Amino acid sequence: MKASVKIFAAAALIAVSTFAMAAEGPGAKATKTNVNLSTADFALAHYVAVTTAGESAGVEQLFAEDFNQKIQASNTQSNSRIGVVKLLKKQKGEKLNCAVSTDILEESADYMVAKVTLKFENFTKTDLVTFERAGNDWKVSKSINSYK
């Protein structure tokens, strides 16, 4: 008898939680997720997660309003904050098949330049990323990519 009461209670709990989640609806999570960017290291780690592991939480928060990205290839390209954020949101959940390494090239109280290297099977992407302190958070202000 005690076992059936436990089973019934567990089933009721599962049913209630399922109905509660369904009642929220698909647009219920429209609020933005805040990510801890209080240090340059946190911002760097989040940048790597966003660009290589498909993390989408806090993408808008990570990039400065005047962010720009330059891609050095056979034809140089330039991307604005809006374009990069839009692209990264589309890549939500997609993980790149590469080895990632980071090196901090320069760091001060309000500024950091890091080198993020993505080593793929047939090529390497190098990303020089500039972080700046903006109030209490660190933001990515510039990114320069090159390929070998």
Explain briefly what this protein structure is.
By secondary structure, the chain is an alpha+beta fold.
Tell me about this structure.
With 148 residues, the protein is of the alpha+beta class. 34% of the residues lie in helices and 36% in strands. The protein has four helices and six strands, in the order H-H-H-E-E-H-E-E-E-E. It has helices spanning 2-24, 40-52, 59-62, 81-90, and strands at 63-72, 77-80, 99-107, 111-119, 124-134, 137-147. It has a six-stranded mixed beta sheet. A hairpin with a 2-residue loop joins strand 5 (124-134) and strand 6 (137-147). Mean pLDDT is 80; it is low at 1-25.
List keywords for this structure.
disordered N terminus; 4 helices; 148 residues; single chain; alpha+beta; 6 strands; 6-stranded mixed sheet
Helix and strand layout, with pairings?
Blueprint: H1 2-24, H2 40-52, H3 59-62, E1 63-72, E2 77-80, H4 81-90, E3 99-107, E4 111-119, E5 124-134, E6 137-147
Parallel strand pairs: 1-6
Antiparallel strand pairs: 1-2, 3-4, 4-5, 5-6
Number of helices: 4
- Look at the structure and give the mean pLDDT: 80
Order of helices and strands: HHHEEHEEEE
Radius of gyration: 21 Å
Distance linking N and C termini: 69 Å
Tell me the structural class.
alpha+beta
Strand element count:
6
Largest sheet: 6 strands, mixed
Uncertain segments: 1-25
Helix percentage range? 25-40%
Content of β-strand: 35-45%
**Strand order, sheet with most strands:** 2-1-6-5-4-3
Which word captures the global form?
Answer: globular
